């Protein structure tokens, strides 16, 4: 924005009555900044979004293929999973499971979420207990 304002002032001072000068300056600025913007966008995608996306897509595909049919409104527990930590995405695993089962009442507990870690002795209260990796879904109970 500041560069655009400075360019506008320079053009206004250099050619105060010209109508073509501001248009040419704007086109030149866009042509100059477009490759930089494209490079920066690609760099951010490769370094930040691509690793996150690979992890989420892989786990989501494993759930889509292997999550068994569950009773309506069931409670399930994930003792381990590769999805992003709860500080980033606290409800992602629940969303993926509810999407697969088409059950909005499905209760998904995750050992990695604060306050949801359950000792093994209490796993009996869940309809199923799973361990999810990027390659497989293992039913523990």
Brief description of this entry?
The protein is of the alpha/beta class and about 140 residues long. The protein has two domains: about 1-45, no CATH class; about 55-140, no CATH class.
Detailed description of the structure:
It is built from three helices and four strands. It has 141 residues and is α/β, with parallel strands linked by helices. Strand 3 and strand 4 form a beta hairpin. Helix 1 packs antiparallel against helix 2. The longest helix has 47 residues.
Features:
2 domains, single chain
Layout: helices, strands, pairs:
Layout: H1 2-14, H2 20-66, E1 75-80, H3 92-101, E2 107-110, E3 128-132, E4 137-139
Helix pairs in contact: 1-2
Radius of gyration: 26 Å
Assign an overall shape.
Answer: rod-shaped
Secondary structure class reads alpha/beta
- Mean pLDDT, to the nearest integer, reads 87
What kind of assembly state do the chains in view correspond to? single chain
Largest sheet: 4 strands, mixed
Number of helices: 3
Low-pLDDT segments, ≥5 res:
none
What's the end-to-end separation, in Å? 58 Å
Q: H/E order of the elements? A: HHEHEEE
Number of domains: 2
Main sheet: strand order:
2-1-3-4
Question: Helix fraction?
Answer: 40-55%
- Strand content of the residues, in percent? 5-15%
Number of strands: 4
